[in-house]
Design goal:
Strand content: 5-15%
Mean pLDDT: 77
Shape: flat
Number of strands: 8
Order of helices and strands: HHEHHHHHHHHHHEEEHHHHHEEEEHHHH
Distance between the termini: 86 Å
Low-confidence stretches: 55-61, 71-102, 104-110
Number of helices: 21
Radius of gyration: 31 Å
């Protein structure tokens, strides 16, 4: 007979407290999300304030200099090693130094993005069109999707046009041709083929333009498959002419609407600034990304003197305020510490360029800074360093080691730079294939597989050798 048994045992498991989970979430946020989170906390928490809003007073502050001074004191231990990501709060504050009203933000001075509809309406408004034709053209423009295509049937547009007498399909077709003549080329098409066909008129070579029209209107699947031999036979054209025409068609834009209407503009604000001085390389936090938030000591003291059990919500606010300021200090201290360690390891890259990049793994930096390896992984994601050579994501400085023929370690970044230089110096009439590059690298003591050369070339945004020859 079966019986129930209760077994009692002990085992260790890793779990994150709710507060630690919130810390992880804070560290994983993007710069803009982090800025929004901090602003939200300052709005809802009476114990947090923007230090720029109050002059003088007895308040605790958090500045870039104080964070830099406390780097060693705030190295996170292994449990609190998850992500940190930098923040761009008040990124433009202080740059004008009183040159503009305090009520005017940088976003107020940013130009409003031009949408596709605005761009097209602007062109229609300067054309000498009768009111009826203009209304039909405007209705077509408002019916375009984000790709710039007209997905609505012309018969359906008849019912929504604000004109006295409903137009017939022929009138709407004329209005459609007017819209299709606007910039960008290919707009208001009803299919990909029509979109490409509209762009054929932009080909300067009349013979190629006519051939492109024929290929797009009658042989588009063969163009998509790049069937040069078949198209050459069907069109009676030389294979080289067909190939050049296909290449020209491939450069057309099948989604002309994407040129306009994107209201999102992503800016990279470096978290760390690296400069050369007399002592070497100086690494500092970018003041623009250090939050201007602090604990209101006056409110805290008043509350401590008068708090009662009925003030449970305010007690939570005070604890959260202390936690927020402390974790922000730890966040930026770790970012600075990791950046300083990277610069020490990769100083030759800063002095001599990509050819001098050393292979480096996360553990090297984690051991030097005294944090967990996962902390370094998260700290280096979406964090950027401004250097005399440009702005780089911190992850750019990490790569696995490749061993050269002499037994020395070499960074893939350095190999990519060698490949870039080889291609830049090649003869346009006789470009190097990936196999040629691999053999040249091997002759220099760098044994790299051809498929690896292909991958590095693609990362550099360079075409294959035969393609480079055709383009030249």
């Amino acid at each position: 007979m079966n019986s129930l048994q209760i077994n009692v045992g002990a085992r260790q498991t890793h779990s994150l407290s709710p507060q630690l989970q919130r810390a992880v979430q804070m560290l994983q946020m993007s710069s803009l999300d982090f800025a929004a989170m901090v602003r939200g906390k300052m709005e809802e928490n009476p114990f947090l304030e923007d230090e720029a809003d109050i002059e003088g007073g007895e308040h605790g502050t958090t500045t870039a200099d104080e964070i830099a001074d406390s780097t060693q004191d705030h190295a996170m231990d292994a449990e609190l090693s998850p992500d940190r990501e930098v923040w761009v709060a008040d990124a433009y504050q202080g740059t004008a130094s009183g040159a503009q009203s305090p009520d005017v933000s940088a976003m107020d001075l940013t130009a409003s993005p031009t949408t596709l509809a605005m761009h097209l309406h602007g062109q229609l408004n300067v054309m000498p069109l009768p009111a009826r034709d203009l209304a039909m053209c405007q209705a077509i423009v408002e019916s375009l999707d984000d790709d710039g295509y007209l997905r609505t049937d012309l018969h359906e547009l008849v019912e929504i046009l604000p004109v006295a007498h409903a137009p017939d399909v022929e009138e709407l077709a004329f209005a459609l041709r007017l819209v299709q003549s606007l910039d960008p080329a290919g707009i208001a098409a009803r299919s990909v083929g029509e979109c490409l066909l509209l762009q054929c008129s932009g080909i300067d070579d009349a013979r190629m333009a006519e051939l492109a029209r024929s290929m797009v209107s009658e042989h588009l699947p063969a163009v998509a498959k790049r069937d040069i031999t078949g198209l050459s036979k069907r069109l009676g054209e030389a294979p080289l002419v067909v190939e050049k025409t296909i290449d020209r068609i491939k450069r057309m834009n099948p989604r002309p609407g994407w040129s306009y209407g994107s209201a999102r503009v992503d800016y990279i604000v470096p978290d760390v600034i690296v400069r050369r001085d007399r002592k070497g390389w100086d690494v500092q936090l970018n003041p623009a990304v250090v939050p201007h938030v602090r604990l209101n000591k006056v409110y805290e003291k008043l509350f401590q003197r008068h708090k009662t059990k009925e003030h449970a919500q305010l007690i939570d606010h005070l604890q959260d305020a202390h936690w927020t300021v402390r974790n922000m200090e730890q966040r930026f201290a770790t970012i600075l510490g990791v950046a300083q360690a990277i610069v020490r390891k990769q100083r030759y890259f800063l002095e001599y360029g990509a050819m001098a990049m050393k292979p480096m793994i996360l553990r090297e930096i984690a051991d030097e800074v005294g944090v967990h390896e996962s902390t370094v992984s998260r700290v280096t994601s979406n964090k950027y360093m401004s250097t005399p050579l440009g702005v780089f994501e911190l992850k750019h400085f990490f790569s696995r080691s490749l061993t050269s023929a002499s037994g020395e370690a070499c960074s893939p970044t350095a190999i990519r730079e060698v490949i870039h230089d080889m291609i830049a110096a090649e003869s346009p009439a006789n470009p190097l294939s990936d196999g040629d590059i691999a053999r040249q690298l091997e002759s220099q003591g760098l044994k790299v597989a051809r498929r690896t050369v292909t991958k590095y070339r693609q990362l550099l945004g360079l075409e294959a050798g035969d393609k480079r020859k055709r383009l030249s």
